[in-house]
Design goal:
Blueprint (H helix, E strand, L loop, with lengths): L1 E2 L5 E2 L5 H10 L4 E6 L3 E5 L27 H5 L15 H12 L10 E5 L18 E4 L2 E4 L10 H7 L3 E7 L1 H14 L18 E7 L2 E8 L17 H9 L9 E7 L3 H13 L7 E7 L2 H8 L15 H23 L9 E5 L8 H16 L6 E4 L1 H6 L5 E2 L2 E2 L1 H15 L10 E6 L3 H4 L7 H4 L8 H5 L4 E6 L6 E5 L3 H11 L41 H30 L87 H18 L15 H19 L6 H9 L3 H17 L6 H8 L7 H4 L8 H20 L4 H25 L17 H11 L5 H18 L5 H23 L8 H7 L3 H12 L8 H7 L8 H14 L8 H28 L7 H13 L5 H7 L7 E4 L2 E5 L1 E3 L8 E10 L2 E20 L2 E20 L4 H4 L3 E3 L1 E2 L2 E2 L12 E5 L4 E7 L3 E7 L5 E7 L16 E8 L8 E2 L1 E2 L13 E5 L2 E7 L3 E6 L5 E7 L2 H9 L3 E12 L1 H5 L7 E10 L4 E10 ...
Parallel strand pairs: 8-11, 8-12, 12-13, 13-14, 22-26, 25-30, 28-34
Antiparallel strand pairs: 1-2, 3-4, 5-19, 6-7, 9-10, 9-11, 15-16, 17-18, 20-21, 21-47, 23-24, 24-25, 25-27, 29-30, 31-32, 32-33, 33-35, 36-37, 37-38, 38-39, 40-41, 41-42, 42-43, 44-45, 45-46, 46-47
Helix pairs in contact: 5-12, 7-9, 8-9, 9-10, 17-33, 18-32, 19-24, 19-27, 19-30, 20-24, 21-32, 22-34, 24-27, 25-27, 28-30, 32-33
Length: 1428
């Protein structure tokens, strides 16, 4: 880990070569060797000191400058930098680190192993039981059980003592094999390995080990062939003799010997067969037998998932219900046999047996729950001290991140081993302790299944490499300490995990902003990303210093206090200067002071307690108004002044009339805060509380509120203004603060490189954004879209109010019911009838590609879609006045008392209880379903004219001042969010900061701005938005700070010619690209004088939000790869090879799945991180990387990679990986003709498949499936394929062995070189020319090469070229500079003496489609030297 000068602390495990580069940029670090010459650890000093560690540069001198060269340099015989790594760190640098660590208060001492202890207490170990408790949490490697007791742990020595004179048998699938590996390696490290000892599914059926005196004296395995078993032979009883011979081959038992036997048996009858063999064995009759079994997963493989490699035909595809039935029946039979075998008098009674539930896999949680429930039910009455039930699923769930592809990490597997040993070893060996001390590679995060972390496994796994097996390749050792967890620290200098833990303790109270954003570190490559999203510290943050989290709210609150004290002092001084007036019996109450910016038109009434016949009128006049205070913003959360207006005098006596005051300030303030919380929740910046997610529902409520108060005001005191004058007068309360907020919002967005274009900015300045669907989701202050709606409603208000005022009671109630019911039918009932009430989820934010996108944007933002809500408010006000004309009743008064509290209770229940959420709530809750409840709040607070005020209204009136700041809270929420440190997490400090900023904005921005706005007449008001348009619209053309950086990005020229070589940017026309889309990874071939081209349309968007997942509520970080394919065919210009192809016409390819659906609903890749409840989701919207080929029939086919299309039941568990597909009969001239894609059936469905190289030989389609080994598969048009040949090219294999971080992969198509073409090369025999690339997983770097392979079976590799001179470009997303070869073609130029030209098409930086063109004779020179 590293504490850098930029005060960012992060965990890092990196290759030495990367470290060398980083250390040159970080001259303060000390380097420690983890494994000498392979991996490193950088550690910094105490957190409160400036970084002063010195770099040991002398230790880097062995790395020559050629290390800066690319992979091609190493291949071409230059000095192999990877072989000259640092062997050990200097003693002097170790002394420096020890001295620094001493300053932390931890005495490290001079040796490399240092122990500090604290006072220990008596440990309460869990009792040995038939169902060991395993539920709890795993923290810092310590299992904390919910039961409060400690899991007894045994050291390797204690396990050896326990298992002396024991034969431990493990029966099951791949997780049981992992159990065997870790148990065997506990007895003696490195006994078993997934590949070198054939300990993996598909390699060996039996692996048998015998130990004596701590050493392995026998190790042997038997494959299916050895046992005369076919893949589908699951009945072991058919091969009793073979199994008996295998078991009998081991040395006979002798005192002290231990035996561990792993048997791959995936079904319950396999357990029965093994038990029968063990019962009949005599060679180990004097030893006790312990047996554990885990049977479940393969029932799903065959019966539920119906995977092609299912080995049990009778179960294949029978469905979940039937599979569970068979599983339960067979489980009962087997467990009953085990009761005899393991019980009193049974062969395994002295050691006992155990049955395990399935290993934890969050991806299969839903479907496995039924099977785990079955085994739990079966064991409910059978579990005993002789037959223990191990709940492996629950044990794995204590740290869900310790599972990769349904397989547990070493730490969970070893804890499972220890749990199983608890009853086996009870009374046979002492418990060592309860504190786990893990050494080696034990945790999933140490490898994440990345193959460079397990070189031994990577070099021996061949074409079938699994991430979860890689995780169990390196050694993991569980050492055990005494005392309570955390009482012992063992610090080994140079050991990554322990040094990281130590520094974490040192820095635990000093977290930086990058850690809180959210606190996860994702291995994108391990998650299946070939080009991961960019990792930028403090993305979209302006400030990244932790102290600001405290400073910002404190400064803001102090300023508020200063202002409050100042105002109080000024009022007191004014009060002291005033002479109190003489009291008057019938004095009218004074008019309220003018409160600019928060008074609401419509809160008009006579003063409470005013005498009858009082002829005084108290009101505030404004220029250009008709005797009333301007309304504050109606739509948003802001203040509600208590405006009091008395009637004009008349000659007739009047009765005393109560004030008609709307105490809605509290309701506005609460709604405002909920809206803000909802916005932050959608961004993943709040706690994962379901209630927060409904904040969006209050924005339409403010439309209703506006209609309510406006109609009330107009009914009491109508004005004689035209609609434009009326709207302008009302804008005084909303526009000034909004306009001012656009200025900081723009510069914040501009500084972060995300300012919208001038058209969007100008539209929102003039409050037009809600009318323009392509603009509204791209605006600054996007949450202010509702202001655009309010202006429209104000313009329409006068005629609407006149019409509503003429309605009677029945008509008013009928209109309100229609408003509630009709939208409900449109948003819920209609979609429900169509079978999809959440159709709107198909919309991607800021995407307008489909009709669903357009419709969703219109329904979410267009003023027409909320006009009925505004009408609802007007009708509610009219209904209230009509009710006031009727005599009061006790029932009515009671109903008014409980109306608002009841509505709030109902809303809280809907917002807080998931099961109560409305159908299609994202739209229905906005437009219809909640209208009655939200109307009840308005009516419940306001009461009925002439009736006593409801109690809730009287209480709210006492804190009505809160409303003064609601609008500013709403306006400044995201400005404060962008300024807030720690990744924008909405802590208490953030809310303090926001409210304080709103208070200051109200007094120092809103009020002065409104005073200025009032001075403008309607004739000149347009000057303000015009000036703002010029300022911000003009600034949008000024390059933002990222421009300087982007100008430094590598951008190849459009045309680059070097002699006979021509490198050009392809002109692909007709794709109708959006501004942020690119065409990349082109591939082509030539037919006569025509060129057929295919390319991938590409765009990436991402978002972070809180939401529901199948694992519970959590933060969802979603990366969307918008992808599809364009295809076209164009005639070549005769001189194309001199000037380039010219414009190539392409169109979007219409591709469908076999189910008839469009190829855009694909499996999503999801990774759940339970430690912080975060779901990483990658969504790809279409096919990728097309390769057009011409079949023997003359038809054009396209091979492409893609995530699988969703099936009828969605995505199969584990099926969220890329696969290869083939579409035949593609018409390049009419690519919009529907074509079907079919999966190429060879390969694996549970690991990514791509980069296959297609070629035709004698009319048959083949693919180079892998490069090392060079595996060839034959394919048919319908997708059927099979492996036909495999060969090895030793120079390339050795290169990969010497460089474990390299991966060799295919690129493009292969072309046949024979006849006249062969004469233009240095080769004498026909061969295929193809492309490959090496990918360095450590550096994320590509290097591209051509290679030749034989034209005849087995199609072995003949040569590899020098690195090809492709022009790289810098990706604007990942900021990495690279090129990616995607196609290979050859053209015969008959006009120039049958010259053959090679075209290498490639993508540069995910933004350019390019082609490298040269004669075949020139291309041949790349093989003339440095060929392998």
């Amino acid at each position: 880990s590293r504490w850098s000068s930029s005060q960012k602390f992060r965990t890092a495990e990196t290759r030495w070569k990367n470290c060398r580069e980083e250390c040159e940029n970080e001259p303060e670090c000390i380097i420690w060797s983890y494994k000498p010459g392979v991996e490193i650890q950088e550690a910094y000093t105490k957190r409160w000191d400036p970084p002063t560690c010195s770099l040991v540069r002398s230790e880097l001198s062995c790395l020559p400058s050629t290390c800066d060269t690319d992979i091609g340099g190493t291949m071409c015989g230059q000095k192999d930098c990877n072989m000259e790594m640092l062997q050990q760190i200097s003693n002097s640098s170790q002394d420096v680190l020890r001295e620094k660590l001493r300053q932390t208060g931890m005495d490290i001492g001079e040796s490399s192993d240092v122990t500090t202890t604290t006072t220990t207490t008596t440990v309460l170990f869990c009792e040995v039981s038939a169902k060991p408790t395993v539920s709890g949490t795993l923290r810092n490697g310590q299992l904390k059980l919910d039961a409060g007791c400690k899991r007894p742990l045994r050291s390797p020595a204690s396990v050896q003592q326990c298992l002396a004179d024991t034969w431990f048998v493990i029966v099951g699938g791949s997780n049981s094999i992992l159990f065997s590996i870790q148990l065997a390696n506990t007895l003696k490290p490195k006994t078993l390995h997934p590949t070198t000892t054939k300990s993996r599914t598909g390699d060996a059926k039996i692996v048998d080990v015998v130990y004596e005196n701590g050493d392995v004296i026998y190790l042997k395995w038997w494959t299916d062939v050895d046992l005369s078993l076919a893949w589908t032979d699951i009945d072991f009883d058919q091969r009793k003799a073979e199994f008996k011979a295998a078991f009998a081959a081991a040395p006979a038992h002798a005192p002290g010997r231990t035996r561990v036997t792993s048997v791959v048996g995936q079904y319950w009858p396999n357990v029965d067969s093994v038990v029968e063999q063990l019962d009949a064995d005599t060679a180990w009759a004097s030893a006790g037998i312990a047996l554990t079994t885990q049977i479940m997963q393969w029932y799903l493989v065959c019966g539920v998932y119906n995977i092609f490699f299912c080995n049990r035909p009778d179960l294949k595809g029978v469905g979940s219900a039937k599979t569970q039935e068979v599983f339960e029946q067979e489980a009962i039979v087997s467990t009953d046999k085990l009761l005899t075998f393991c019980g009193p008098g049974g062969r395994a009674h002295s050691r006992g047996c155990s049955i395990q539930s399935n290993s934890f896999d969050p991806g299969q949680a839903a479907i496995l729950s039924g099977f785990n429930a079955i085994i739990g039910k079966v064991m409910q009455t059978r579990a005993s001290e002789d037959l223990v039930f191990l709940d492996t699923w629950t044990l794995g769930s204590v740290a869900g991140g310790e599972s990769i592809n349904a397989h547990s990490s070493p730490v969970i597997t070893l804890l499972n081993v220890q749990t199983a040993l608890a009853h086996v070893c009870d009374g046979r060996s002492n418990i060592t302790g309860a504190v786990a001390d893990w050494t080696g590679t034990c945790f999933a995060h140490q490898t994440n299944g990345a193959m460079n972390t397990c070189p031994e496994y990577r070099n021996t796994c061949g074409a079938n490499c699994e991430r979860w097996e890689c995780m169990h390749g390196p050694t993991c050792t569980l050492n055990v300490g005494n005392g309570e967890g955390g009482s012992k620290w063992k610090v080994q200098l140079g050991e990554v995990a322990n040094v990281s833990d130590l520094i974490e303790v040192m820095l635990q109270t000093w977290l930086t902003c990058s850690e809180k954003q959210p606190a996860i570190k994702v291995d994108w490559y391990a998650a299946g990303y070939t080009d991961p999203p960019p990792e930028r510290e403090c993305a979209n943050r302006i400030t990244c210093v932790m102290s600001l989290e405290v400073i910002l709210p404190l400064v803001a609150v102090l300023l508020v206090i200063v202002v409050v004290v100042r105002n109080w002092h000024q009022k007191r001084q004014k009060a002291e200067k005033l002479i109190p007036p003489k009291p008057s019996i019938e004095a009218s109450p004074p008019a309220p002071p003018e409160r600019v910016g928060h008074d609401i038109e419509g809160q008009l009434a006579t003063a409470e307690g005013s005498p009858a016949g009082d002829v005084s009128v108290q009101k505030t006049e404004l220029p250009g108004s008709v005797g009333e205070v301007p309304a504050a913003w109606d739509p948003s959360p802001t203040s509600t002044s208590r405006m009091i207006v008395q009637e004009e005098p008349t000659d007739a006596p009047k009765m005393k009339e109560k004030a008609d005051h709307f105490p809605l300030g509290l309701a506005r303030f609460l709604a405002s805060l909920h809206v803000v919380a909802g916005h932050l929740y959608s961004r993943g910046s709040t706690a994962k509380v379901w209630f927060f997610g409904f904040g969006f529902t209050w924005v339409p409520w403010f439309f209703m509120l506006s209609g309510f108060v406006l109609f009330s005001a107009n009914a009491r005191r109508p004005t004689k203004e035209n609609p434009l004058e009326y709207a302008f007068r009302r804008s005084v309360t909303i526009y000034p603060l909004y306009a001012i907020s656009l200025i900081p919002a723009f510069f914040l967005a501009w500084a972060q490189g995300r300012a919208p274009h001038a058209g969007v900015i100008v539209s929102q300045i003039w409050l037009l954004q809600s009318w323009i669907p392509p603009f509204v989701e791209h605006t600054l202050q996007m949450h202010c879209w509702f202001l655009s709606c309010m202006v429209a409603y104000w313009l329409a208000f006068k005629p609407v109010a006149n019409g509503i005022s003429k309605l009677g009671m029945a008509q008013t109630v009928g209109a309100m019911l229609a408003i509630c019911v009709i939208p409900w039918i449109a948003t819920v009932v209609g979609p429900a009838g169509a079978g999809n009430v959440e159709w709107y989820k198909d919309h991607t934010f800021r995407n307008m590609e489909t009709s669903v996108d357009v419709l969703v944007v219109i329904m979410k933002f267009n003023p027409l879609c909320y006009f009925h809500v505004f009408l609802m408010g007007c009708l509610l006000a009219h209904l209230r006045l009509l009710l006031g004309e009727r005599p009061a009743s006790k029932m009515r008064i009671f109903m008014m008392e409980v109306l608002a509290p009841w509505a709030y209770v109902m809303l809280v229940a809907i917002f807080g209880v998931k099961d109560l959420k409305p159908w299609g709530y994202k739209l229905s809750a906005r437009l219809s379903i909640l209208l009655p409840l939200q109307a009840a709040i308005l009516l419940g607070f306001s009461g009925i004219p002439g009736d006593a005020k409801p109690l809730v209204g009287k209480i709210a009136a006492q804190i009505d001042f809160l409303s003064d700041y609601s609008y500013a809270i709403y306006i400044f929420q995201f400005i404060c969010h962008d300024l807030w440190p720690t990744g924008g997490v909405a802590s208490i400090g953030y809310w303090m900061f926001l409210i304080a900023v709103a208070y200051l904005a109200q007094h120092f921005v809103q009020q002065p701005a409104q005073q200025l706005w009032k001075k403008l007449s309607l004739k000149y008001f347009w000057l303000v938005p015009l000036a703002l348009s010029v300022l911000l619209g003009g600034m949008s053309f000024v390059p933002d700070p990222s421009w300087k950086y982007s100008s430094e990005l590598v951008t190849p020229p459009d045309v680059d010619q070097d002699g006979e070589m021509l490198d050009i940017r392809l002109q692909l026309d007709g794709a109708n690209l959006s501004p942020d889309e690119e065409l990349i990874n082109p591939s082509l071939f030539v037919i006569g004088n025509d060129v057929v081209v295919a390319a991938r349309r590409h765009r990436i968007s991402s978002r972070q939000f809180n939401g529901e997942t199948e694992f519970g509520d959590g933060t969802i970080i979603e990366s969307v790869w918008h992808s599809d394919v364009v295809v076209g065919r164009t005639s070549l210009d005769p001189s194309w090879w001199e000037t380039g192809f010219g414009p190539l016409s392409v169109k979007t390819w219409e591709l469908q799945s076999l189910s008839g659906g469009h190829w855009n609903e694909l499996c999503a890749q999801e990774t759940w991180i339970p430690e912080n409840s975060t779901l990483m989701r990658k969504v790809v919207t279409g096919p990728e990387d097309p390769k057009p080929i011409q079949l023997s029939s003359g038809d054009v086919a396209v091979a492409f990679s893609s995530l699988p299309p969703l099936g009828y039941h969605g995505c199969e568990p584990g099926g969220d990986v890329s696969q290869m597909y083939l579409a035949a009969s593609v018409n390049p001239l009419q690519p919009d003709d529907v074509t079907l894609g079919r999966r190429l059936t060879c390969g694996f469905t549970r690991r990514p498949e791509k980069n296959w190289v297609p070629f035709l030989r004698r009319g048959h389609l083949h693919f180079a499936y892998t490069i090392v080994p060079h595996e060839i598969v034959a394919a048919r048009d319908n997708g059927d394929c099979e492996t036909v040949y495999t060969s090895d090219f030793r120079p390339l294999s050795k290169l990969l062995e010497d460089n474990p971080s390299y991966r060799a992969r295919g690129s493009g198509q292969a072309v046949l070189i024979d006849g006249e073409a062969l004469a233009q090369t240095s080769m004498s025999t026909p061969h295929f020319l193809a492309l490959m690339h090496l990918f360095d997983v450590d550096k994320g770097a590509y290097s591209h090469f051509a290679y030749r392979f034989s034209a005849e079976p087995p199609y072995e590799i003949l040569q590899v070229s020098q690195q090809l001179p492709l022009k790289p470009a810098t990706s604007p997303q990942s900021l990495k500079t690279f090129a990616f070869a995607s196609g290979l073609a050859m053209h015969v130029d008959t006009d120039s003496g049958s010259t053959h030209r090679i075209v290498v098409s490639y993508g540069a930086g995910d933004r350019d489609a390019r082609a490298l063109i040269m004669p075949l004779t020139r291309f041949d020179e790349y093989f003339a030297s440095c060929s392998l």
